[in-house]
Amino acid sequence: MKKKPKTTYGNVYLVGAGPGDPDLLTIKAAKLLSNATLIIHDGLVDQAIMNLIPNNAVKISVAKKRSRHSVPQDQINAMLIKYAHQGHDVIRLKGGDPFIFGRGGEEIEDIRAAGIAVEVIPGISAAVGGAAEFLLPLTHRDYASAVTFVAGQCKGLSDQNWAGLAGKGRTLVIYMGVATADAISEKLIADGLAPDTPVAVLENGTRDNSRAYQSLLTDLGAMMQRNTIKSPALIIVGDVVRTSLAQNDFTATQITQAIGGNCALTDNMEKLS
User: Fold this and answer.
1) Hey, what domains does the chain have and what are their CATH numbers?
2) Which residue in 96, 189, 224, 226 has the most C-beta neighbors within 10 A?
3) Strand duo 68-69 + 64-65: pairing
4) Any catalytic annotation for residue 94?
5) N-to-C CA span, the chain
6) Residue 1: pLDDT band by 50, 70, 90 thresholds?
7) 87 three-state secondary structure
8) Is 23 a catalytic residue?
9) Are 157 and 183 in contact (CB under 8 A)?
10) Sheet holding 247-248, edge to edge
């Protein structure tokens, strides 16, 4: 009996596209993109990065729509495996970093279980890139010795225990929190965080249309509404906000109404200006 020829599978590369600016790609990521033949990409990847991909490459979008994947995650995993089994080298291109709220861990589990070689090329996360643009240090010897990343839009938000993640000496970075900004503010205050804690929102970090505003935690939802903040945007909570280039976005009237005339909070508002 003749032996069947050994099947040669392609490889899968999980590539972090960074926060948006193509100059922030790693050299390795840029090299892979310039030689790509098949790419499965998210919607948050900036067009300037997509332009680096050869015109004859197959590009498959699995962009999210209204906080849901247009293609369910298990189907994305199956696509990666199918094309690799066919012998293609597949690039899975993600905004930010594959392992920071990028579902990279879920994908590599299935890929490895299918006997396919996989490599992860890290990217600059949205938090690191956006904070750098607005000179907002996530840690600082005078203000914060710890930083935590959490997702603000997920099931059971009110049941999550964020106690101890924000406050004196700590920075809290919240991804995907635009739609739930009011609930996030209420949750943090209910969990013991002071209503006058500095907070910033960074929209479209490192892109041409980036913006950053700061106010107080109690004003977070209202600040989002005043400036019609849209995703992608990050919320950063902590004293480090005061050192940044984020624009002060409050008035005495707005904050006084939000805090019910609390003089102590109004004093802290003045410190931000």
Assistant:
1) 12-124 (3.40.1010.10), 127-272 (3.30.950.10)
2) 96
3) antiparallel
4) no
5) 82
6) very low
7) coil
8) no
9) yes
10) 144-151, 169-175, 233-237, 198-203, 211-216, 247-248
Active-site residue, from 21, 23, 42, 239: 42
Q: Among residues 151, 154, 164, 163, which one has the least CA distance to residue 125?
A: 151
Question: In whole angstroms, how far apart are CA 54 and each of 22, 30, 62, 77, 218?
Answer: 15, 12, 19, 24, 48
Q: Tokens at residue 178, please?
A: 């635009």
Separation between Cα atoms, residue 266 and residue 252, nearest integer Å: 8
Phi/psi for 267 (5° steps) reads: -65, -40
Burial class of residue 113 (count of CB atoms within 10 Å of its CB; 0-12, 13-18, 19+)? exposed
* CB neighbour class for 265 (10 Å; exposed up to 12, middle 13-18, buried from 19): buried
Instruction: Look at the pTM and tell me if it is higher than 0.70.
Output: yes
Distance CA 87, CA 101 (A): 29
Tokens of 142: 């005078």
- The predicted-structure confidence for 154-191, as pLDDT tens digits, reads as follows 656 767 778 889 989 999 999 999 999 999 999 999 88
The residues, any chain, with a CB within 8 Å of residue 1's CB and separated by 6 or more, are none
Distance between CA atoms of 253 and 76, rounded to whole angstroms? 49
* Catalytically annotated residue among 6, 46, 64, 89: 64
